[in-house]
């Protein structure tokens, strides 16, 4: 039976970041990925903001589909405003990005096994179905990076289940034969289009984009696909649909995401931003933090995994979760007022930073009847 210091389950951004960080320190690392090719199938709009990732990873030009200079926000009445934010981030080519990140981990010494689906855990052994055979691998430390449907967490006794108010259900298509400005994302806040969530157009080029939406199942019984099909027919009647994906984004904070000999990272640890649904950056951050701290544990040294995750990731997630919960409780009139405030806030300005706390403060000061809500956000 093969034996590794660290086994990482899942070769998404979180798993590969954990593996490459740990492998750099000279410990033996195995990554197990259930699919034959890393990065495929993809469930993502591929947007990444520069500020969220800058101390963790240098983004190479070959990983990028387009550079972004801001967003166009469409409100409940159909009116739009533009946020000018030069070099705010990128729409990645995640199929290339995920595959190359795993290759970097391998170049640092990690072993990558594809077609290797983890199907259970027995003490310090993983049971793996690989090329139709069952194999067992022993580990000293385990990193669960197996995405939103994570089973590693459950096997280790962690309640990773997602209630109806703890998930955003998403549908997204990759469209060609459209015409868009490739340097601006579209964010659309209309309750009849995406109840309890928002819709997006993330450009991949002048003629193609990831177009999708996320809905809250507590706001509607209809499927996300139904909303998306109807919208795409109106918005892009000439488009060619090349790919369809359906997935979810967690909006839950786990009570526990680590144990004596394991850490959960990325979507498996529920480190996705509950407001935007963004999980690439927090996946990478939590992976790097996990890789570093797993090595400390293996060396019998004191580690800071929980503290670093709290500081770097959970502090913001806790605040954004409250904002999301508040957003779910707002009526149409408040949404229109908030949109108008946003328009005033961003008009004729080029910005270099978006501070959610500052925005929420502006909203509360301008709409005093939302004060009780504001107090809930602060405390
Ligand atoms: C529609 C949609 C749009 C999104 N858009 C964005 C966006 O624009 N920007 C953004 O930042 N985030 C976005 N997200 C979220 C983002 O995709 C995830 O947060 C991110 O991929 C999480 O990375 P991860 O490494 O934790 O998990 P994943 O990328 O899901 O990787 C998990 C890996 O584990 C493997 N795996 C799972 N189970 C096993 C097993 N038992 N054995 C072996 N391998 C296993 C999987 O095959 C997969 O490769 C979006 C999500 C959705 C659904």
UniProtKB/TrEMBL annotation:
The keyword Cell wall biogenesis/degradation does not apply. Residues 167-240 form the Digeranylgeranylglycerophospholipid reductase catalytic domain. Residues 5-48 form the FAD-dependent oxidoreductase 2 FAD-binding domain. Keywords: Flavoprotein, Oxidoreductase. It comes from the Bacteria. GO terms for molecular function: oxidoreductase activity, acting on the CH-CH group of donors, NAD or NADP as acceptor. This is Geranylgeranyl reductase family protein. It comes from candidate division WOR-3 bacterium. The lineage of its organism: Bacteria, Bacteria division WOR-3.
